[in-house]
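Researcher: Please predict.
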Amino acid sequence: MKLLEANDVVEILHDSVQYQLQKINNVQKTDDGRDWYQDLPLIVKEKFDNYKVDYETLSRILKLEHDEIKNEMSKGYYYWRLLRSACNTYRNDLIEYDQQLNQEFNLQETEAISDNSVLNECIVVLNQHEIEK
């Protein structure tokens, strides 16, 4: 719950969730993505759709006031697991993006992109308290 006390942390958590939602929503924006989705077995498609709804809910939670966020997040571990997944995806993709910039344009890696200390600290804390079912 300490993660939810700092504005910069809540902001990076929200950014991570928004990024995950963007990736989910982008599936329906290309022919390949739509074909991939259509070919999924029904049970997997339902799980994918449920993740979208759950990340939308989590995004709304992270826009609430601090006390309301804590109240919603204290109801169970599922949203914490989604946060952990979103943060890891966000960090991994930022690192990949930074490496592409380095390779294509000879730009140096930046702390703001691939070594975001707030994001990294969130992941450390979320990993320490990981609960798997």
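Model: The chain has a mean pLDDT of 88.
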